[in-house]
Design goal:
- Two copies of one chain form a homodimer.
- The first copy, chain A, is of the alpha/beta class.
- Chain A folds into two domains: 276 residues, Nitrilase/N-carbamoyl-D-aminoacid amidohydrolase; 226 residues, HUPs (Rossmann fold).
- Chain A has a six-stranded mixed sheet with strand order 5-4-3-2-1-14, with no helix packed on it. The first copy, chain A, has a six-stranded mixed sheet with strand order 6-7-8-9-12-13.
- In chain A, helix 8 links the parallel strand 18 and strand 19.
- The longest helix of chain A is centred in the C-terminal third of the chain and has 23 residues.
- The relative contact order of chain A is 0.09.
- The interface between A and B is large, with 110 and 110 residues.
């Protein structure tokens, strides 16, 4: 038996494209071949409420009917396609509301209707995952016989174990005491920076426990903030047999691998407690030093560059944009965003920068921005905001009778830039890419409707310290794209004279370590102080963090790089009594 | 035995206030009294990720310890308090990550430690509810013996039934075949307009099935978009024994009611399928007429006024604002928002309007706005935007070399207003209340960072047709607050000469009916046309709806009035292939 791995890349609900791919693959298939495609291949993932909307349901049922009509009309062939899809059951007839929606593996054999042969048992429901909201879990083990091979079936999360739900699909397979020739896992597993190692380690364990090679098929796609990286692979018990590409459609066909491991006594059932999935990415927490954020090494920096370039292009493609516009400030965040966009650029796409100086903008900001745009050969429009700024100051004095000062004055400048940036976006049909980083977001160091605007955020899951790491890496790897003055100068919002970020915030290296303790949900304020952080700095950071949910709730989608990020999976009430933050 | 119902109102995680209430209530208690307090009384609800954050966990564990120290120090008394709280179990010691978090009923008897006596079985996980994400469900029936009474225990959703999860706590109690003297349900049940009738109906059914009076205790609170209305009640089998107030703390103490019903053969297990909870609020769908949105009667209008006034005050209180500011346009939405705020105003609070005319603003807009502010006796600042508008037009031409036209020009005006409104908010420390309605949100008929700004939305769950209903009701009930010219004039954004909403959109009565079909998830485009809607109008609406998720994702919290609303419970991907909307 041969196996064929299809690491597919389709837009959610692009039924025409999906059908086209399937027809092509079936047409090209050889005899005695098992084809493996990702989880929910027929629909894409995540669907969220789409799977409850009548328009979607009707279109999907029609699509399924078309597949069956086509498949039954085909000439019989000994080839088998396994792909993910939804299996609806309704209250009453198919016009009724869905009673059960199952996340299943369909089997397609030419000449026959498709058949649901396995239902996902372990529905992930932590962080960004809401599968228990939509899907009904299965309770039957999945085993397929094809070409004299006995094939064990899993869908994505099934490879893990949850003591909370007392569900353990791998142990269920083990307890069948059968000799499997292959274990397959059809997945739609979101990317994060440290996930691949975890996946491979657990896969080796499963191969050893079930005495069979393990094939993992993952989809590719950028769905707003969530990326699917592909990276499909196979382990034969001791090593990887193949590993497909990251962030692009890929395929491989080969003879079914043979189990090469020894029966080992691994019994490390990893438990998926919610919080257990997240760990604080800190070093020096144990040895008496103040904890520090773990710096990003070159491999991680490259993954970040790949992920962000892929993610922003996916968003642009699906929103029908071919131009990008960035507000360049002379600071590092906007420079890194511009560099990433330049690296991501495809043929026929355009990128431009807008520089909007105020009376507080230093010369170095202009010079460095101009130099950067020159290096990457893109236009930079200069639109000063002093005139409008003064106009508003005067008008407020005249019309409202109160002068504009302090924070009000700073915010006006930031919002003027937001307005001009979006005017340019409207004018040139360009997608506005946000330039906020995770540290700023965490402490609300940005102006809502001002510098926080944008359609999608590239840096919203990177602390400022990590923005430095990635910037230096890019300069090392791709030539000095970002002028070194931008990297070396002290960070500043330039909204008043001589302003520096450290006027309001602790230095980023210390603040980011405090934030990682808090945002990983692992460390309380009290604990952070016990670990050696300065009590005043901890209080400053906690105080800013707890008061600024209202800004994060209106923020754009953030491309997710970590296991715990702001965005869809971060669900915290805006209003609450948070005085306890200061006590515990 | 006496029972005492405590319909409490505390901010989430306000441990000090909660403790104070408990101490007071225990101090005041008489012998032989069963005190009933809401679900998660000890923490508030919803908590979302808070219950995973180490700061919260540490503070809560400390709080529990304080309660136990205090309770054990009390003199023994035959009085019993039942209240909701969290019961944590950890991986390893209490420093570990939570393994299980249970939503339980605690029993407090003076002189003893508190004891968890029942764990919620049916965890709601649809729409805004994510309880399966955080909590581990119980599997034991809850029965308490106190004062020779046998008391059956339920927590909130337990009173319903889910065929999907095969969980039916009421049937579990029934199958014990015991004689209960009382059934109690401690709840934290969010408000929506049609919920009370459903609750009462089901409660009568439960009382009849279990042959016992049924007491329902609900909390009060406004948690961002979600309101808890209280409305605690008791049914004795045939009728309501009492019904506490809406949207305010309340209390009643009385002799334990006696079952007054006859054993009836009600067996209508209501099934909580996800979609089954929502229904399209339409009339005339069956009799050959084109479906229409069901108009709001006076009772519903009053509920809406009560809910919105309560909700906005809760948000303001918890965000520490005492002033409100609204951008008044001369249109009905902003006028209704202003009227609602005026009705909600408490002693010491201030309200002001800002009127920001452009060259397209008609005289009637100014006159009617001024008249309204006069009627409700609040200041109206007039800040014209023509000057700044022209300034930007000229600057763009000069600096970018392209003139500003069409949509770009319209959006600049809207964003100028957003900027000025927020400058005034910064300057006067006033909370900006958003003025968008549900129809606008659904079709994206607003400018992001422009007229869509605000901290919280009052009308985001009301279609434009319903904005008319509520406005007319307010004028009838509270004197003519809103000048009739504002209600009668054709809706217009006034962003270009002679603009009216119907230039871009179908008339609101027809559009709202189409939207309700779509947003209730019940009707596809094809079905809407079959029901008699104009195909062009359906296509227009669907086309605008599918393309505008990116606006809704950055919108502020919307006070929730309906069973299905935009906001936290509405989860739809921004990017997807939505061509199927046009086909099915």
């Amino acid at each position: 038996m041969r196996i064929s791995i299809h690491q597919t890349h389709h837009t959610v609900a692009a039924f025409d494209d999906i059908f086209k791919y399937l027809k092509q693959a079936v047409g090209d298939s050889k005899e005695d071949t098992l084809h493996l495609l990702p989880e929910l291949f027929l629909t894409g993932y995540p669907l969220q409420d789409l799977c409850l909307q009548r328009s979607f349901i009707d279109a999907y049922l029609e699509f399924q009917k078309e597949i069956n009509d086509w498949s039954t009309s085909l000439q019989k062939q000994n080839t088998c396609f396994l792909f993910g899809g939804l299996d609806y059951q309704f209250c009453g007839d198919t016009d009724g509301v869905p009673r059960n929606i199952k996340n299943v593996i369909y089997k397609l054999i030419p000449g026959q209707k498709i058949e649901a042969i396995y239902t996902k048992k372990l529905l992930p429901n932590y962080d960004i995952f809401d599968e228990e909201k939509y899907f009904t879990k299965g309770d039957k083990t999945g085993v397929l016989n094809f070409c004299n091979h006995k094939i064990a079936l899993l869908i994505c999360e099934d490879m893990w174990h949850s003591s909370v739900h007392q569900i353990d699909p791998v142990s269920d397979l083990e307890s069948l005491n059968q000799k499997f020739d292959l274990v397959v896992n059809l997945s739609a597993s979101p990317f994060n920076l440290h996930k691949n190692d975890k996946r491979t380690q657990r896969s080796l364990e499963i191969a050893n426990r079930l005495n069979a090679p393990y094939v993992y098929v993952n989809r590719v796609g950028g769905e707003d903030e969530i990326l699917f990286d592909g990276n499909s692979f196979c382990v034969d018990g001791t090593k990887e047999v193949f590993n497909l590409k990251s962030f692009q459609q890929d395929m491989i066909e080969l003879e079914c691998p043979i189990y090469n491991g020894e029966k080992s006594l691994i019994n490390s059932k990893i438990e998926n407690t919610w919080e257990g999935l997240f760990s604080a990415n800190l070093i020096d927490t144990q040895n008496g030093h103040i904890p520090k954020l773990k710096p990003l090494d070159d491999n991680l920096c490259q993954s970040i560059v790949d992920a962000l370039c892929f993610g922003v292009q996916e968003y642009a493609k699906k929103s029908y944009f071919k131009k990008f516009v960035v507000a360049l400030s002379g600071g590092l965040d906007s420079a890194l965003v511009l560099a990433l966009l330049k690296l991501s650029l495809k043929k026929g796409q355009e990128l431009e920068a807008i520089f909007m100086p105020s009376q507080y903008t230093r010369d170095i900001s202009y010079d460095a921005s101009k130099e950067m745009c020159k290096r990457i050969n893109i236009p930079m429009h200069v639109i000063p905001i002093m005139g409008a700024h003064n106009y508003f100051r005067d008008m407020f004095k005249e019309k409202v009778g109160e002068s504009i000062e302090g924070l009000t004055d700073e915010n006006i400048q930031s919002r003027l830039r937001g307005l001009l940036l979006y005017a340019r976006s409207n004018q040139s049909d360009a997608l506005v890419i946000n330039t906020s980083n995770k540290s700023e977001l965490a402490v609300g160091y940005s102006t809502i409707y001002g510098d926080s605007v944008g359609a999608i955020s590239l840096l919203g899951d990177l602390y400022k310290s990590e923005v430095f790491d990635v910037s230096r890496y890019i300069n090392k790897k791709y030539g000095e794209i970002i002028p070194v003055e931008i990297i070396d100068r002290p960070p500043s919002a330039e909204l008043r004279a001589d302003q520096e970020d450290t006027d309001s915030l602790p230095p980023y290296d210390r603040m980011d370590a405090i934030l990682e303790g808090i945002l990983s949900y692992r460390l309380s304020g009290k604990k952070l102080v016990e670990l050696g952080h300065d009590p005043i700095e901890v209080e400053t950071v906690l105080n800013l963090y707890r008061k600024t949910e209202y800004k994060r709730i209106q923020f754009c989608p953030i491309i997710k790089l970590k296991s715990k990020s702001f965005g869809f999976g971060y669900r915290v009430p805006i209003t609450k009594d948070s005085t306890y933050y200061m006590k515990s």
